[in-house]
Design brief:
globular; 6 strands; 42% helix
Length: 132
């Protein structure tokens, strides 16, 4: 019995180490890729991070869409408002049953917009709000 415990503990230690050190970098990498997509005004690239169902609010117009439909709405917004840059101001991890979210400033040819991104439990974007 005492010989079994070390055999079990070694794989658990490896798994714990992986979860502790690798997963946070994966989330940061995804967040950076989302920032790049927003900074380029690339709705297609951003669409790869969308949940299958997305609540989208652009300048007060609220709709619930599939990820593909949301991508087309965002493409129309980016076409009307040529993107110059995006800078994330805040990123909050999921805690106590609350979703993680991010907010930042999207600078376009027509002005600066505040962008709010809310993530589901799979770290896919489930809600986007764009406000002037």
């Amino acid at each position: 019995m005492f010989f079994v415990i070390p055999l079990i503990m070694k794989p658990l230690t490896r798994i714990s180490t992986f979860l502790l050190f690798v997963l946070p970098f994966m989330a940061v990498g995804q967040s950076a890729a989302i920032d790049v997509a927003l900074g380029k005004g690339n709705a297609t690239e951003l669409g790869t991070y969308l949940s299958p169902k997305v609540d989208l609010s652009i300048l007060g117009e609220d709709v619930s869409l599939t990820g593909g439909e949301a991508t087309r709405y965002l493409e129309a917004f980016f076409t009307k408002n040529s993107v110059r840059s995006y800078k994330r101001a805040h990123l909050t991890p999921a805690t106590n049953g609350r979703s993680s979210y991010s907010l930042g400033d999207l600078v376009t040819a027509t002005g600066t917009y505040r962008v709010y991104l809310y993530f589901d439990t799979n770290q896919k974007i489930s809600e986007i709000r764009i406000e002037k």
